[in-house]
Write a structure and sequence with these properties.
Elements lengths: L13 E9 L4 H14 L4 E5 L9 E9 L12 E4 L6
Length: 89
C-alpha cells in the first residue's frame, strides 16, 4: 500500500444527476422534491425535463444541475444516473 493518502472530499456542489423513470409513476413529483431539497440547503439547482413523455408507461428523463456557482445551463455529460428500469438506460 502507498504511504500517501488522498485528501478526503468534504463536499461537492457542482454535479449533474439524471433520473430516468416511466411516465405516470409519480416521478415528476419525486424529481421536483429532489430539486427543492437541494435548493433549501442553499445550493442553486437547475432542473429540466429532457424528454417528457405524454404517454403513461413510456420513458421520461429528468436532469438537475447542482452548482454552488449558480450555473443554469446544461453541460456535457452527467455525474450520476438513477435509472429505474432497463427501458430508460
Amino acid at each position: 500500500m502507498s504511504s500517501t493518502t488522498q485528501p478526503r472530499i468534504e463536499g461537492i456542489n457542482d454535479f449533474v444527476i439524471k433520473f430516468a423513470n416511466v411516465n405516470g409513476s409519480g416521478s415528476a413529483s419525486a424529481n421536483e422534491l429532489f430539486a427543492k431539497a437541494i435548493l433549501r440547503m442553499g445550493v442553486p439547482v437547475s432542473p429540466r425535463n429532457i424528454f417528457p413523455s405524454n404517454i403513461q408507461g413510456l420513458p421520461t428523463w429528468y436532469e438537475a444541475r447542482v452548482s454552488e456557482q449558480g450555473y443554469q445551463g446544461r453541460r456535457g455529460g452527467i455525474d450520476m444516473m438513477v435509472a429505474m428500469n432497463p427501458q430508460t438506460w
